[in-house]
Design a protein that fits this description.
single chain; two-stranded antiparallel ribbon; about 150 residues; about 5% strand; mainly alpha
Length: about 150
């Protein structure tokens, strides 16, 4: 277990650095997730690795909530509910943490959903904001696209 904890600590350290980069990006561009959105939590069809969700799994275990989470997953699958199993029930948002019951331990895909940047065929950085941000904050998205083209990382 000690080895897993060390790995989780390293992953969380990387996530912390990433969160700082995202905060700088948001400050520089004004691009933010709309308050209370949690659109990214509404779809089970996400891809992640075991390493990315290891902090989340360990936190669920540390809280002794594995049975509750497994039950939530089973219930959601049974009724075709696509909302993430760790989204807090009866809540549209909880301030800056959205609806996530494990916000600090969320995987990479959750952290990057609204702010992803990829390299296109010409190897140029290209913003890939979520649909909600693109629709609700077009001027922020435009500022972000310009900033990325000018070298903001």
């Amino acid at each position: 277990m000690t080895r897993i904890i060390k790995i989780v600590d390293r992953v969380l350290h990387i996530y912390g650095r990433l969160d700082e980069i995202i905060a700088r990006f948001r400050a520089a561009t004004g691009m933010e997730c709309p308050e209370g959105c949690s659109y990214c939590c509404r779809n089970w069809c996400v891809e992640t690795t075991v390493l990315e969700v290891l902090p989340l799994g360990l936190e669920i275990y540390a809280r002794h909530e594995e049975e509750a989470v497994l039950s939530s997953i089973a219930d959601k699958e049974a009724c075709g509910d696509s909302v993430c199993a760790v989204v807090l029930p009866n809540s549209s948002h909880h301030g800056s943490q959205g609806s996530c019951g494990y916000y600090a331990w969320r995987p990479l895909v959750c952290r990057l959903f609204g702010y992803a940047v990829r390299r296109n065929k010409r190897m140029e950085a290209e913003l890939c904001p979520c649909r909600i941000i693109r629709e609700t904050e077009p001027s922020s998205v435009r500022r972000a696209e310009i900033a990325i083209r000018e070298g903001l990382e």
